[in-house]
Design a protein that fits this description.
The structure is a homodimer of 281-residue chains.
Chain A (H helix, E strand, L loop, with lengths): L1 E5 L3 H12 L5 E5 L3 H9 L5 E2 L2 H6 L3 E4 L3 H14 L5 E4 L5 H6 L9 E6 L20 E5 L6 H13 L3 E5 L1 H29 L3 H7 L2 H7 L6 H10 L1 H23 L3 H18 L2
Parallel strand pairs in A: 1-2, 1-4, 2-3, 4-5, 5-6, 7-8
Antiparallel strand pairs in A: 6-7
Chain lengths: 281, 281
């Protein structure tokens, strides 16, 4: 199968590496605004050929869009204009309502499958791409009834070749869950980094003392705004909803400490501990 | 050197394993209120003998206290009552002002060295102990001028045998920095877990969708209240100070989203990204 990867970064690059290793992708066209990324991707064997969008799409069975969610939403209608009923287009974005709404009336809507692989790191660019990134992780397909059966099958096969397991839901539900499970973690982590940067003026002390716990909690704060501002923008209402709850949960800790109510503090912590049972089912 | 480990859990157990592996500890007495932990520690080769506190201390060159910080503060004066000028006592607690104040007028204060290894996980008990846990991490020694030179040297040798590098500071400064670098991360993580548990009623969805990012940010929320309530209690003022700043940083994200001020949102994220440069110096 010939594949186009639009955005040869962490996500697109990792997909290409794995799909080539599996023999699922026989030839990979790379499309990217960043010339250096294309060169790097070629060197690392992520892509076989750097190409224009039009040329790549016209020669591909499958087009994978792996760029920030605002750019994905903009580019998708034009790609659907180009494809025939033998081609499939999928994205890899962290929000789904925006992109499905952008093409809901497009005559080729059924060639598109809305896809979200539940994996990422704080790094970016083709140099961060790793073949085994997605193995064992979940992937979400949204609004599957809007896609043709064969297009859906192609994306399901792609997920299988990435060694991912599939979950199906509608785009609106996806965005609510993603706000809880992914987007709020990033805001928390950014705000924690800003807190420490604001309060702890001795950078050397941060560096020297930073424990594994701190590094783990603040890891996501390294993630780029190019990817995350569009996500927060597209999922604004859900993110605000969860953010308000998060601030109110932090206020409970504050109040327990201020009032020296250590029974309440213990109760709050015991409740939080339940996450272990859920994550390690 | 004969060593007593009080609290044969994650921290005490990991120290014992490493110090025995290095040949630094020739014999290890284990003291613990939990009989099962003593049996487990004996089985795993963490300790050579389960013992009463009095017997263990009387036969040891070095006594390591590795129990929650409130219990450490209570037990230390009685241990200092028992030791001679040939013995050394150290702790491993995450707060330092409380414990040094508890013994500041003790006639044997100089036999005690206040110690904090900057490592831990969300797990507990001797089954979690791992020999290489501390390797490459920082350890803090507080108020070194209050300890005898030979006691200090013994603890410095211990840290060296744990493959840790040492930082020296006074206990009050330590507690301020620990609030920034470690304690606030735990509150953030607990509050995030409670947010998700409160808002996301579909536990299966949490389990299925939980990405690496979420798991990483929420990891510390698995940490037990037995350890953490005493830490927050002893470091209340500093933790509240940082917690207030953290809530105000989250409010900035909230305000940027509510006002759709995406330039501000980007600025907040770019600022948070600076943590990468500091952590990866």
């Amino acid at each position: 199968m010939k594949i186009t990867i639009i955005g040869v970064g962490l996500i697109g690059g990792s997909m290409a590496l794995k799909l080539k290793a599996k023999g699922f992708a026989s030839y990979v066209f790379g499309v990217d605004q960043n010339e250096n990324h294309l060169l790097e991707a070629k060197e690392r064997g992520i892509i076989d050929e750097a190409s224009t969008l039009e040329n790549a799409v016209s020669h591909s069975d499958l087009v994978i869009i792996a760029i920030p969610v605002d750019a994905s939403r903009k580019i998708l209608p034009g790609i659907l204009d180009l494809v025939t009923e033998n081609q499939t287009v999928m994205d890899a974005g962290s929000t789904k309502s925006g992109i499905v709404n952008a093409v809901k009336n497009h005559p080729n809507r059924n060639r598109f499958v809305a896809f979200h692989p539940m994996w990422g790191t704080e790094n970016s660019g083709p140099k961060s791409a790793v073949s085994e990134s997605f193995a064992g992780r979940a992937a979400v397909i949204c609004d599957r009834e809007q896609s043709s059966e064969d297009a859906l099958k192609t994306v399901e096969n792609t997920a299988e070749n990435l060694d991912m397991h599939l979950i199906y839901m509608n785009a609106d539900d996806h965005d609510v869950h993603a706000a809880y499970i992914s987007h709020i973690s990033h805001i928390t982590s950014y705000a924690l980094a800003n807190t420490v940067l604001e309060k702890e003026r001795e950078e050397d002390t941060i560096f020297q003392l930073a424990s594994t716990g701190f590094s783990s909690t603040v890891r996501l704060a390294k993630s780029h705004p190019e990817m995350w501002v569009p996500i927060f923008k597209q999922n604004k209402e859900n993110v605000l909803d969860v953010l308000n709850e998060h601030i109110s949960q932090l206020r409970k800790f504050k109040s327990a400490l201020e009032k020296e109510n250590y029974e309440l503090l213990e109760e709050l912590i015991r409740n939080a501990n339940k996450i272990r049972g859920i994550l390690e089912k």
